[in-house]
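Subject: design request, 386 residues
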């Protein structure tokens, strides 16, 4: 090294704060369809843009006889140009049978999918849609058991405003039903809903964010210009919307005094009192599940020291707590959870059970679904000073 006088400059790394890309945006679109020269059914393809779909032969001309795959893909990437989308086609001949392929698709995607939209091109009654909801929930429950959880977005095929029944009793906490559709698209897609748009919004959101957030999720754009319902019926009265909101449908609406079109909420097909009543609740717990398992998995079947009384030494319990804390601290830093607590009971009898129990609790981010303002007149002089 030269000993001459000089100005030395050391090149440092890490100042830009770049991190490993999050996987929260990874989504899936499952549909019945026809193969093309470059797209085989039952094979998963990964798309980074609409152009990738077109290269597979899924173009505007693909959407015939009730098919809406191209439209849904186009809307997904319009809403989230940085999205990451797996697609898979199937020969299934009913909405329920298409939904039954969700876990198969997840396995072929190596468990990477965090949320999946499912569409079906055939004629479908709303009763058949409800059956598809039940099947989709079975698939989501199985995925959670296998440590690859995902949320499901379904079209409310067969939906009718006047005859709409509540979804709360379906007990499908990981499934949401979208009935939003651009009125101007009703002629080409008479029995399709804008699930691609919803999927794009979910993939764009942090796991803690509601897709009805006005400031972030304006739906207006190419392919979605005028709020309506599946089938082309226009949004008419606020009373109707309030009723549908209570019945836990996801639809599009406008707000007086503000341009644009927005989702009403992120409800799932379960009661509003459930811990998992909204998509962001589920995405948050799903992410925490994946992070905790990844942190603890290397310790599976590892030796665990105990003291003379058979209890866990403090060093051991704190070590496991530390692994979990490190996993969840990133969610706090990213404003995906407000806080968390992790506890490993040192008194557990691991010698008898060979089972180490960890208790983890997360405090979620709140959502301002309603903002109430008390507003009235004020006389600066007061009543007695008049």
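Subject: RE: design request

Done. Sequence follows.
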């Amino acid at each position: 090294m030269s000993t001459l006088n000089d100005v030395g400059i050391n090149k440092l790394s890490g100042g830009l704060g770049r991190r490993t890309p999050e996987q929260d945006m990874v989504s899936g679109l499952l549909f019945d369809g026809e193969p093309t020269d470059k797209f085989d059914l039952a094979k998963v393809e990964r798309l980074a843009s609409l152009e990738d779909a077109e290269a597979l032969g899924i173009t505007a001309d693909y959407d015939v006889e009730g098919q809406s795959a191209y439209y849904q893909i186009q809307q997904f990437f319009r809403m989230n140009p940085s999205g990451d989308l797996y697609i898979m086609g199937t020969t299934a001949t009913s909405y329920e049978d298409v939904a039954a392929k969700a876990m198969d698709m997840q396995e072929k995607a190596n468990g990477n999918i965090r949320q999946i939209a499912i569409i079906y091109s055939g004629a479908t009654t709303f009763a058949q849609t409800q059956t598809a909801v039940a099947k989709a929930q079975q698939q989501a429950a199985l995925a959670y058991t296998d440590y690859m959880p995902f949320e499901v977005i379904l079209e409310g095929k067969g939906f009718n405003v006047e005859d709409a029944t509540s979804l709360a009793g379906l007990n499908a906490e990981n499934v949401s039903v979208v009935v939003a559709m651009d009125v101007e698209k009703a002629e080409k897609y008479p029995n399709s809903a804008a699930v691609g748009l919803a999927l794009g919004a979910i993939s764009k959101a942090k796991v803690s964010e509601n897709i009805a957030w006005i400031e972030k999720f304006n739906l207006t754009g190419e392919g979605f210009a005028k709020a309506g319902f599946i089938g082309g019926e226009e949004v008419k009265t606020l009373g109707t919307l309030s009723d549908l909101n209570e019945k836990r449908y996801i639809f599009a609406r406008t707000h007086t005094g503000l341009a644009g079109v927005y989702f009403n909420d992120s409800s799932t097909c379960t009661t509003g009192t459930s811990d998992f009543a909204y998509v962001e609740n589920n995405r948050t717990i799903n992410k925490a599940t994946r992070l905790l398992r990844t942190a603890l998995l290397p310790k599976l079947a590892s030796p665990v020291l105990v003291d003379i009384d058979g209890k866990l030494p403090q060093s051991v319990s704190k070590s496991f707590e530390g692994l979990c804390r490190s996993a969840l601290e990133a969610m706090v830093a990213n404003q995906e959870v407000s806080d968390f607590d992790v506890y490993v009971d040192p008194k557990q009898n691991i010698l008898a059970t060979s089972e180490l129990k960890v208790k983890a609790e997360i405090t979620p981010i709140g959502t301002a679904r309603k903002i109430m303002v008390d507003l009235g007149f004020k006389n600066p002089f007061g009543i007695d000073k008049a």
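Residues 301-386 form one domain.
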